[in-house]
Amino acid sequence: MDFADAHACLQKVEPLVQCLTNKVVTNFTANALLAAGASPAMLDTPEESEEFAQIAHGVLINIGTPSTEQYGGMRAAIAGAQGHTPWVLDPVAMGGPKLRSDFAREVVQQHPAAIRGNASEIIALNGGAGGRGTESTANVNDALAAAQELAKKTGAVVGVSGPKDLIVDANQHVLIEGGHPLLQKVTGTGCALGALCAAYLGAYDDPFVAVATAHAHASAAGSVAVRSASAPGSFAVAWLDALYELDGAAIANEVTIK
Amino acid sequence: MDFADAHACLQKVEPLVQCLTNKVVTNFTANALLAAGASPAMLDTPEESEEFAQIAHGVLINIGTPSTEQYGGMRAAIAGAQGHTPWVLDPVAMGGPKLRSDFAREVVQQHPAAIRGNASEIIALNGGAGGRGTESTANVNDALAAAQELAKKTGAVVGVSGPKDLIVDANQHVLIEGGHPLLQKVTGTGCALGALCAAYLGAYDDPFVAVATAHAHASAAGSVAVRSASAPGSFAVAWLDALYELDGAAIANEVTIK
Amino acid sequence: MDFADAHACLQKVEPLVQCLTNKVVTNFTANALLAAGASPAMLDTPEESEEFAQIAHGVLINIGTPSTEQYGGMRAAIAGAQGHTPWVLDPVAMGGPKLRSDFAREVVQQHPAAIRGNASEIIALNGGAGGRGTESTANVNDALAAAQELAKKTGAVVGVSGPKDLIVDANQHVLIEGGHPLLQKVTGTGCALGALCAAYLGAYDDPFVAVATAHAHASAAGSVAVRSASAPGSFAVAWLDALYELDGAAIANEVTIK
């Protein structure tokens, strides 16, 4: 898979990525986008989001801590994105609290270019039972059938994050091995990955390769980070550094594709 | 005091801690919980908070930057927590702005398992005069009588943070010495400590020991962090690393109990 | 220009700086203020902001991610600041989305002590065409005439950030050279600079020197940070460290004034 080409396109386009995301990870997500070569815009109000989604290269909808006002912004951004701007759904804690689960089931009908979550979230979004909070209680293999169904129903590329990442569309799938368990000890690495998916989708024409490259980039940065950091505070810093320093060839070297 | 036993329980239970906290520290608090061995859920809407507080192991209510919507979430979470989930009140800037002071006086009646603040906040919550912003203008010794009264009135364990930390319940108190002044130069170390109190309370049966261990863990991490970091940016990173690396025996070695 | 005197005053006064700022940078801004020697209060509700702005030493209004509730807080804080507390306007993405552009044009009439933005934002606030998102599509030299007009119309000191920073009031201007391009790869360095302007204005009598010193302090910290960090994660940490470690003489040594 041509990670190097997708990475080169990202560096060239510097995609403007509008993130409507949870309040825990706004800063970390913006920094991950900057480090990877994209340009973040964390704009999420009802009044401004439709207009902005029309000029952005990609949009992220992450439902980790939605407010009434932010739900309005999300609906506006998705409307603005229809037909020209690829948007990514990150259904955080899907299958847990009812309100967000209903919202995710509603907007998944509106043509996301990609859906990214852990195994429990993807299974729940496809109609199965959900997990607890933001942690997955299922594993990636459990989610393959659900991800394939979801890809067929929605037309989206589906990314399932875990110790291995699974990337699925209606016709194919791939497993990406890499990263490190410390990624789970830093809040927002998964949410930042959702934003990276939107960035690659905004810069590269093949959605399957774009989403796979986003996952490979994040995983590879984890593999690199752990060489200089063995605890979560310094690991988070090293992960951002590695997102910045890795080029396309290095990304390919750091992960295994199956 | 058996810090090692409480710390071992936290590692085993991996308590799910729901944080309704201020917008400045959501990321840092979640990272501190993850580093210490707990699982954060920063969920604070009126619609989802009652339901979630029923399944969480502990709940944090921190009034640093409340909005109308978040006040609704806080009332819902406290209602959901009643009778089974221990919740912690962190009355940030209590005695300053009127709205939050009224709110803290209201909810302190609803059986918090612990109250954590600086000396000025604890004195003000007990009915005395308050400080300026988030800084304490009183010292920990000044707050002993107020903390004891507050513990008797509410049934809560009261933690008063400062150069030394004072832990008080209706029958006993203890002083914990440790940490470093650079903790005051990193925003959110006190707020993260409130979340750690909720984590320990959710994992350990003795509330007094749970709250004391949370304070000892945070202080010990400060003592360790300053050995590799002499300025606030790197100190914050090292503090998260130390929260992760310290075991129960090391926590006990790093602090002095009086 | 006497950076050392302004810096010494900041250390002595420890100004309380109320920040009504965007959700991406609350934590980083508070940490930058603490590192530089000020005391942050990130309080922005309609109910509490007027009262608090009266006791703060300085107020920051940053419109990066405004909500309806925060606009109310901003109007209240500006009202509370009138006549005694210097306030700073950071018109993020001015000239982009209409709602925030209208708001910035409204409040700029209400006597800000300083306005800080990139070249595109300053040109747009003065009535010219705007940029895209938070990035400047114009350069600092392009903004000189607009900044001078804006300074004359409003009475504010105007700071234009870029590879070189331009500081302008109705009668004079100065260029400050320093910093490093990695500052653009860390979200919130510009927003933190707005808060530092409010801190210096709250601690030092001469507004032109106060705003220039804030810019010099931030630039000098960038020049220092890059000596130990070559990627954005570690650079952000090193920048906070340098804000803390630099004294007034060192700030003067690290920048060039023209």
UniProtKB/TrEMBL annotation, chains A, B, C:
Enzyme's top EC category: transferase
UniProt KW keywords: ATP-binding, Kinase, Magnesium, Metal-binding, Nucleotide-binding, Thiamine biosynthesis, Transferase
Name of the featured protein: Hydroxyethylthiazole kinase
Pfam families in the cross-refs: HK
Gene3D superfamilies: 3.40.1190.20
Reaction(s) catalysed by this chain's protein: 5-(2-hydroxyethyl)-4-methylthiazole + ATP = 4-methyl-5-(2-phosphooxyethyl)-thiazole + ADP + H(+)
Entries under HAMAP family matching the protein: Thz_kinase
